[in-house]
Design goal:
Shape: elongated
Strand content: under 5%
Number of domains: 1
Number of strands: 0
Helix content: over 70%
């Protein structure tokens, strides 16, 4: 009976597909975990920027007027809005393709891949949609956190000697940091959504694209020139 079922319903994905998919999601999770918790000896750009954000809010207390600070936060918030809107458009496009995979089948047949069921293409589009949804949610939450940071910054007393000035500036800095962390998470999800797109060309392409995405994200956080600059290595 089992042999009959296997003959009638062949497996949609092979072991290489599952392995490449596991590499993609595990790599995305592990690289994010390492970036946000790198240890003291080798901090990431994300962790290094946390100190600068705290210093920014401390300097803001003594700055009068604070137009520059408000404009800087507004610019950061606009970036989250842009990426959130882009993610929504990309999700809509992926869902539209998922409902009409005939064009993908045509491309696959041109590459010599025939007889692939429609559901296989829909399954391969699913990781892309998942990463895009994660990105959208992170960008939206980041946008709100930057908004909270702006409100708390506006509540900082104008007199630097006021006992509430530094504590509220510190609160604004921590909200700013959490907003930046979520923004970076959204960007990482975008990287891996692009990598997941390679699955349409097969499991080996997905594995290669996931490896490249991991390397790009890792190198920019731990081996980039901006990191050297933040570390004082000019």
């Amino acid at each position: 009976m089992d042999h009959l079922v296997s003959a009638l319903l062949p497996p949609l994905l092979g072991p290489w597909d599952y392995g490449a998919l596991a590499l993609t999601f595990l790599g995305w999770w592990l690289v994010g975990l390492r970036i946000e918790h790198p240890g003291l000896r080798r901090p990431s750009v994300t962790v290094l920027m946390m100190k600068y954000r705290r210093d920014w809010m401390e300097r803001m207390v003594e700055r009068d007027p604070r137009i520059f600070d408000a404009q800087a936060l507004s610019s950061l918030r606009q970036s989250t809005s842009f990426f959130a809107s882009t993610s929504v458009i990309a999700i809509g496009g992926a869902l539209a393709v998922s409902g009409n995979v005939e064009r993908l089948q045509g491309v696959a047949e041109g590459l010599g891949e025939t007889g692939i069921p429609v559901i296989v293409w829909q399954v391969k589009l699913l990781p892309i949609i998942i990463f895009l949804m994660i990105a959208f949610l992170k960008f939206v939450w980041s946008n709100r956190l930057f908004g909270y940071s702006m409100v708390v910054m506006a509540a900082v007393p104008n007199d630097p000697r006021d006992p509430l000035a530094l504590p509220r500036a510190a609160q604004s800095a921590e909200l700013n940091i959490r907003a930046a962390v979520n923004f970076n998470r959204g960007l990482r999800a975008i990287y891996f959504a692009l990598a997941a797109l390679a699955w349409l060309a097969g499991p080996l392409a997905l594995g290669a694209a996931a490896t490249i995405a991991i390397w790009i994200v890792w190198s920019r956080e731990f081996m980039s020139r901006p990191r050297d600059i933040l570390m004082g290595r000019l």
